[in-house]
Amino acid sequence: MQATRRSALAAALATPFVRPAAAQPAWPNRPVRVIVPWPPGGSTDVLCRLLCEQMQQRLGQTFVLENRPGAGGNIGADALAKATPDGYSMAPLTLGAWHINQFLYSTLPYNPQRDFQPISMHWELPNVLVVSSQHNPANSFQEFVAWAKARREGISYGSPGVGTTAHLSGALFTSRLGIDGTHVPFRGAAQIIPAMLSGDLTCAMDNLASYVPVIQEGRMKAFVITGAERWPNLPNVPIMQEVGVPDFVVTSWCAMAFPAGVPAAIVERAAAAMREIGQDAAVQERFLRAGAKCVWSTPAEVTARVDRERPTWREVVRISGARLD
């Protein structure tokens, strides 16, 4: 009897220290900070705002964007890596943060394999090879390649900066096709487009989202896109495989992430919300109008994609000769 009383007393004393899982606060129960490693108004910022609007509707909390641009996305990525892993800081991380920047810089302030907890894929879009309709005589990919190879002075191709997918895909394109190409970095498509329309720049192989309007207006010609399939809003533009260039699928993509160490239950709830958003046809249409595909995945699938693509981007950076130290 005494032993039974002691057992009961021990259980009673222990009970206040046991917190059932059901008693844990539901996530999110306060505003979530979303660190955007790029400036306001850019494609990553715009598409992140679309996502956060949907997250707020589904989860009942405010998602507050905080733009932390600079150093090819490294400033914002580092801010996420050093944030408290409680589920109240997240960020849209593009290819640079996940793997490209580690080949462009001799050192990074974060470790992309260690410091981020993937949530889900967010968006994806291809690059497009475009020229000015007024200043370029070619009317097809094959005509453009023949014209470019015949130019004694070569061609110039623009990008939003050294190490961007536009720069790297342009370097890969000129290398693979044997074209004498000179990279010209700009601050973004807002500068690249006028340079092409004035005839000062030959072409660009840049993110599709920025060029759909000028292509549809007829001011630019689109010869090929670098995706695995044709783009819904530009059904007449072929992919690389169709113009005789195999193994040339280059897409820009973004995945949402927490800092490493966020509890699994929070990661699962955030990923489930993004899955619902990615399966919503109305949301998909809004993303397409903004120039990207709304996509989703499991956290493990983000990691698998990063691991799969890392060797390719290491080789492309080597081909380009790009360095940012």
Q: What labels describe this entry?
A:
single chain; 325 residues; alpha/beta; D-Maltodextrin-Binding Protein, domain 2; 11 helices; 40% helix
Summarize the structure.
This is Tripartite tricarboxylate transporter substrate binding protein. The longest helix has 22 residues.
Rough outline: globular
Helix content: 40-55%
Main beta sheet: 10 strands, mixed
What top-tier CATH class of the largest domain fits best? Answer: Alpha Beta
CATH architecture of the largest domain: 3-Layer(aba) Sandwich
Overall mean pLDDT: 91
Structural class: alpha/beta
Q: Which band does the percent of strand residues land in? A: 15-25%
Alpha-carbon Rg, integer: 24 Å
How far is it from the N-terminal to the C-terminal residue, by CA?
75 Å
Poorly predicted residue ranges:
1-23
> And the CATH topology of the largest domain?
D-Maltodextrin-Binding Protein, domain 2
Count of discrete domains: 2
CATH homologous superfamily classification of the largest domain: Bordetella uptake gene, domain 1
How many strand units? 10
Number of helices: 11
Q: Helix and strand string, N-terminal first?
A: HEHEHEHEHEHEHEHEEHHEH
Pfam family, one: TctC
Signal peptide: 1-23
Protein name: Tripartite tricarboxylate transporter substrate binding protein
Family: Belongs to the UPF0065 (bug) family.
